[in-house]
Amino acid sequence: MKSKLPNSGTSIFSVMSQLAVKHQAINLSQGFPNFPVDERLTAITAALCKDNVHQYMPMAGYLPLLQNIASVTQKQYDRLVDPTTIILVTAGATQGIFATIQALVHFDDEVIVIDPSYDCYEPAILLSGGRPIRIALQDDYTVNWKTVEQACSPKTKMLLINNPHNPSGKIFTTHDLEQLELIMEHYPNIILLSDEVYEYITFEQKHLSIHSRPKLLERSVIASSFGKTFHITGWKVGYLIAAEKLINEIKKVHQFTVFSVNSLAQVAISNYLELVDLNEIASFYQKKRDFFRKLISKSRFELLPCEGTYFQVVSYANISNENDVAFCKRLVEEHGVAAIPNSVFYADGKDLKHIRFCFAKTDATLEAAAVKLNLV
Description:
Elements: H1 12-22, E1 26-27, H2 39-48, H3 63-77, E2 87-90, H4 92-104, E3 110-115, H5 121-127, E4 131-136, H6 145-151, E5 156-162, H7 174-186, E6 191-195, E7 220-225, H8 226-229, E8 238-242, H9 244-254, H10 263-273, H11 279-295, E9 302-303, E10 311-315, H12 324-335, E11 337-338, E12 340-341, E13 354-358, H13 363-373
Parallel strand pairs: 1-11, 3-4, 3-5, 5-6, 6-7
Antiparallel strand pairs: 2-8, 7-8, 9-10, 10-13, 12-13
């Protein structure tokens, strides 16, 4: 049988998690929190189980949830959005991104992807018949916008960005967004897909969203994740906001893949949004970041800047000349800590001797991991 994705196998996330289990290692590889969910959310969910919220929701989403998303978007980004026309609740941001690409990218269209990039992007492009054009960030994880523009052509249908950026932890500056606007101005047929799932996890600098760029709104699809925001990754609930002409096409794909998203989760999140302060999320994770950085500050790892997300990238160049995949496997087997090698996020396997740790863990987990990492 001929595969549609011949180069796709078991993801590095699964590989490292399986190795962590096999060697009873501390898993700082896969990006999921291991601490409890807010008790207010679990209480809301428990109470709702007895209510009549167990049947199909409207295809676009539970109306009160759509209204609360619109309210949050206005409060956070000063953007007025119509909850009934330009918001779509999705089965996680990944499904939203997949549906967007399937709806808007046609056979032989080119999609520019900024590497290192999340592994769900390229398969969605290939399955749509499109051609991924992957452009690497500079070694400091900043964008060379001249290189991006040089990759654009009349065949370019979409530009896919991730901000805050996984795995690097970098966030876009005002200059980045201005350069992006210039490219979009020069190529008026390009659609921007902005993956902003870590939007509420930034630290010294505030996240600059595409929501705040009026010039781009009619040509942008913005993906968000309740899973990341509220550390409920297993709920798989996200949402898209896009101009009506774009979201209508995306809905056509959405309705024939999942149709509607988990009803209980939608109602619970809607009720929770009326209680929670989203601005507290950044300070919560900043304490985690600072705590982890301090714990391993005297190790032989070099700590790279972490401006957002719950990932810390480090260089192990002072420790080993091994490629990063081999180093990560040895780190699990010999030292009992699982990490992710950054080379897997590049089309060409670019190896900067950088690996990624997830610090969305309990303090006890981070302390135990640090003891082991300080001995490497």
